[in-house]
Structures are given as structure tokens and as C-alpha cells.
Amino acid sequence: MFGKHFYNKNIRNIVVLFGTVFNDISIKRLKSNGTVDKHFKVPISYGPAQKYLTMLDQKTSTTGKYNTAISLPRMAFEITQLTYDGTRKLQTTRRIHKVNDTDSTKLISLYTPVPYNFDIELSVMVKNSDDGTQILEQILPFFTPEFQVTMNEMSIMGVKRDIPIIFTGMTSEDTYQGDLMTRRSLIHTLQFTIHGHIYGPTKDQGIIKEVDVNAGANFLIADDLNVDVKPDPTTADPDDDYGYTTTIT
Length: 249
Description:
Layout: H1 10-21, E1 26-30, E2 36-41, E3 44-46, H2 49-54, E4 74-84, E5 95-99, E6 106-111, E7 114-126, H3 129-137, E8 146-154, E9 159-174, E10 186-198, E11 203-206, E12 211-214, E13 226-232, E14 243-248
Parallel strand pairs: 3-4
Antiparallel strand pairs: 1-2, 4-7, 5-6, 6-11, 7-10, 8-9, 9-10, 12-13, 13-14
């Protein structure tokens, strides 16, 4: 119904951006004498937290034995809501242009992108409170309440933009229930909102390199007036520094 297929990876880029911001968090565990016993990065992946909590105690269907459980701490995130943001909307008919990299006689153009807010939940899953506080203290000081990240938002058009990631709140939950054999999991859920954009399809259009106007006769000029305008030099590309030559005959 809407025309040709296109895929600009705008939503995927938001997911990659968010995961990249939090992919370098680490934890140190100390011995009783204060020296470092273990130092490791906290893994992060896309998906709901409950998916990974279920894997903690999952059994195989054939042997009845426990699989190798996933290790804690770890982090997971997912987009929970996508809403249109009319306060950031620019003029709909405005176009963005760029010279085609493979054909300098053509321009790539598209309309102004549509602003959307991406609500994302980051789940921090740990088995002891000290691991959780270490992770939180490596995150929260950077959000006041927003953190700006430069993203290559539309690579084919060369569009880069500072994207705000806004921290909106946090909840904590202790999932320990049952007997002494039940594994404990502390979950800190952090809510964020990203101000992103979604772009429409691109379109190739030719570049006008010469304009020839026949003005026609009027009461001031007895004969027809021909005006020819072309770039100088004529071999100039759209992104070169050039002028115009105008010939009137």
C-alpha cells in the first residue's frame, strides 16, 4: 500500500546504541585482606529479564539434570514502548539532500524524519547486593537525568545526531522465595527514554546542470530573449566550489 520496500535500520540502531552505552561495566570482588579476587565484565544482551531468570533453574527434558545455569550478574534490556513525539516534529515537506556516492549526477533525498520516543527497560540481575550497587554506581552518576551520545543516525545520508538517553526511574525486586535450595536473584530495573527518529524511503533525483530560458518578446524587447545559465566550470560536482556563467542572446 505504501510503495517500495525500504529498511533504514533506525530502530535497530537505537538498540545497538543503548547496548553499547552499557557494554563496558565491570565488577571487582575483594578478598578479606582488600586485594582483588575477581574482576570481570558484566554481560549484556537484548531480551526480557524473565527469560534469563527462567534459565537459572531450567532442567533438560531427557536426563532430568540441571543444565549449566547462566551466571549472575548480568544485564538485559528491551524496548517496552514506542510513542510519537509531536513536540520535536519539524516541517513535514522539508527534504534532506546528499550527492549519490556512486553517481555524482544524482542526488539522494528524503523527507524530514519522524520523531519517536523509545522507552527502554534495563534489568540488572545480581545474586548479592554488593554486585548490584557496584553496577548502579557505574551508571547513575552519568545521568542528570540525561546522557548525550552521538549516533550515525542515517549513514547513507551522512546524518549524525546527538541522541539524549534520559533516565526516568528505577525499581528493585528480590525474587528469593521458597526453600533454601532456591537461587536468589536481585533485580534492579532502570527505565530510560531515548529521543530517536525514524526515516522514510530515500529517492534518487537528477541534478539540473543547465537552465535555458526563452523569455519571449515583450513591449521592451523587440526580439526573443534567450538566457542560458550553467555552472562554471561545467565539470563541477554538486559539492564542489563553483559559480555560474550567464549567457544572454
